[in-house]
Amino acid sequence: MTRSRSTLLALSLLLAAGCSSSSPGDPGTGGTTGTGTGGSTATGGTSATGGSTASTGGTTGAGGVTTSGGTTGASGGTVGTGGTPATGGSAGGRGGSAGAGAAGAGGHATGGSTGGSSGSTVAKPSPGCGKGGRPSGGQVSVANTSLYKFPTDYDGTKPYPLLIALHACGNPNTEFVSITDGAPFGTEYVRSFPNTPDSGQCWSNYSGDVSRILSQYDDVMNNYCIDQNRVFAIAHSSGAQMLVNILSHKTDAQHLNLKGISPVAADPYNVAIPMPVLYIDGQHDNQRSANSATDTVAKFRTANMCMSTSKPYTAVAMCNSTESGHPLVDPGCIIYDGCSVPTIWCSHNDPSYSGTEHGIPCFAIKAMSDFFSTL
Question: Within its chain, how far is the Cα of 115 from the centroid?
Answer without folding.
Answer: 10
